[in-house]
Amino acid sequence: MHTAGKVLLIIGGIITALGIVMIVGGAASAGLNPDSENVWEGTSGDFTIPDDDIYGVYIKGSASDCDAIGSSTSISITNSADEEKFEKSCEFNEEDDYLDDGFQRVGSIEWWNTNAGEQVSIQSSVKIYIVGDIDALGDAAGGFLAAAGGILIAICGGVILLIGLILALTLKTKDPVMMQQGQMMGGQMMAGQMPMQQMPAQQMPAQQMPAQQMPAQQMPAQTTAQPYEYEQK
């Protein structure tokens, strides 16, 4: 496999995995789960309003359970002056909304008639969950954006993976050039013969040197002496 293909496959795999993690995490935070994202839960007790958020009241149940509030089911949230602060509002949970299935929003604490830091007393025949709706909606929007970004990142990673796979299948790694043994032997023989061919003539025995080469042995190495002899004459 070609090196470029390997590198792109590794990078594409990392980016795709990161996108999948963002999708899963974003989808998890995009849904509201009152069981774990509430500021108060129970059937009776005191609750201090933290800030100016709109605090919704949720129960586990179906639409009929919300409709039953006021008849067979009672929820009461009062302030120190014994004024009722719970406002019933049955908002049925749909399959495509951000509220987890199995929960119903049954109303809210009157946000326009309460102040941050005010304490209210809760009495309910069913367990209720109080959630800051604005804060939860912001978390849900952030989760949707994270999931959308994760989808885009996963698509980019998939494209890089595809390119890496194409390069891995099409590009071939060049094989190293191997010198044949016969060529090496020939090169060694030629290298061994070079000193014999370049041996100076004066080092050869006189009896083995041809007669016509004897004058060449006595010639001076430099030819610049001839003009000097000419000037002497």
Please describe the structure with a list of short key phrases separated by commas or semicolons.
6 helices; 20% strand; six-stranded antiparallel β-sheet; 233 residues; elongated; single chain; alpha+beta
What does this entry look like structurally?
With 233 residues, this protein is of the alpha+beta class. Among the domains are: 3-30 and 141-170; 40-140, no CATH class. Helix content is 43%, strand content 20%. The chain has six helices and six strands. It has helices at residues 3-30, 63-67, 133-170, 181-197, 214-218, 225-232, and strands at residues 40-48, 55-60, 75-78, 86-91, 103-109, 119-132. Strands 1, 2, 3, 4, 5 and 6 form a six-stranded antiparallel β-sheet that branches. Helix 1 (3-30) packs antiparallel against helix 3. It is elongated, with a radius of gyration of 47 Å. Mean pLDDT is 74; it is low at 211-218, 222-226 and 228-233.
How is this fold's topology laid out?
Blueprint: H1 3-30, E1 40-48, E2 55-60, H2 63-67, E3 75-78, E4 86-91, E5 103-109, E6 119-132, H3 133-170, H4 181-197, H5 214-218, H6 225-232
Helix pairs in contact: 1-3
Query: For the terminal residues, how far apart are their CA atoms?
Result: 82 Å
Give the overall silhouette.
elongated
Number of strands: 6
- Which range does the strand content fall in? 15-25%
Stretches where pLDDT is under 50 for at least 5 consecutive residues are 211-218, 222-226, 228-233
The helix/strand class is alpha+beta
Question: Mean pLDDT across all residues, rounded?
Answer: 74
Biggest β-sheet strands, sense, barrel:
6 strands, antiparallel
Number of helices: 6
SSE string, helices as H and strands as E:
HEEHEEEEHHHH
The portion of residues assigned to helices is 40-55%
- Rg computed from alpha carbons, rounded to a whole number of angstroms: 47 Å
